[in-house]
């Protein structure tokens, strides 16, 4: 990967799969009590004010947070994903944007969520992303990150019935936590999900 080619590849890939991906994940939260519990805890930690779901995809998590009473809105790199999110969740706010150049005012958010949306960001770009997260959050604002756990990166060339070109990065929770601390966050909770089959992690942090 060189320059910003990974960004354009990711955008094009998710534009291609937007409708199929939305159909797949529409009921995902209903099937996973642990993920719902994590989102409920996150909602409880938010002390009023707007919350950004960064890399929101088709908006199902954004809508779930709204159902929990959170003033949530979504941002996604893919215009097609944003179009699907607006279609499926009319009345909610969704914007096209990149977490690498997050176009939100300083200290404007009461909380921030990145729900398996960091998995395509190269290692060298993660500190920049976390720097933006720190900039846009208010002091005390919670962050919830979800990601795949592992030590490898692979090129994904097909998904959801369509061709894709995205690198999927699996990371150890300790590495992600170290990046968060370097950006000025305090890591408060780490959950390991499905450790024996397809390990993933959730990290709760606070500014």
SSE order and pairing:
Elements: H1 5-25, H2 33-45, E1 50-54, H3 60-67, E2 71-76, H4 79-88, E3 94-96, E4 111-115, H5 126-136, E5 142-148, E6 153-159, E7 162-169, H6 173-182, E8 186-193, E9 200-206
Parallel strand pairs: 1-2, 1-4, 2-3, 4-5
Antiparallel strand pairs: 5-9, 6-7, 8-9
Helix pairs in contact: 1-4
Provide a descriptive summary of the structure in words.
This protein has a single domain (5-206), classed as Vaccinia Virus protein VP39 (Rossmann fold, 3-Layer(aba) Sandwich). Helices cover 35% and strands 27% of the residues. The chain contains 6 helices and 9 strands; from the N terminus they run ααβαβαββαβββαββ. It has helices spanning 5-25, 33-45, 60-67, 79-88, 126-136, 173-182, and strands at residues 50-54, 71-76, 94-96, 111-115, 142-148, 153-159, 162-169, 186-193, 200-206. The strands form 2 sheets. The protein has a 7-stranded mixed beta sheet, sandwiched between helices. A two-stranded antiparallel sheet has the order 6-7. Helix 1 runs parallel beside helix 4 (79-88). The chain is globular, with a radius of gyration of 16 Å. The model has no long low-confidence stretch (mean pLDDT 95).
Q: What is the alpha-carbon Rg in Å?
A: 16 Å
Tell me, what is the CATH class?
Alpha Beta
Structural class: alpha/beta
Q: If you consult CATH, what is the topology?
A: Rossmann fold
**Low-confidence segments:** none
Number of strands: 9
Q: Overall mean pLDDT score?
A: 95
Categorize the overall geometry: globular
Assembly form of the protein: single chain
Major beta sheet, strand line-up: 3-2-1-4-5-9-8
CATH homologous superfamily, by name?
Vaccinia Virus protein VP39
Q: Given the structure, what is the number of helices?
A: 6
What series of H and E elements makes up the topology? Answer: HHEHEHEEHEEEHEE
Distance between the termini: 31 Å
- Biggest beta sheet summary: 7 strands, mixed
What's the structural domain tally?
1
Q: Return the CATH architecture.
A: 3-Layer(aba) Sandwich
What percent of the residues sit in helical stretches (DSSP H or I)? 25-40%
How much β-strand is present in the residues? 25-35%
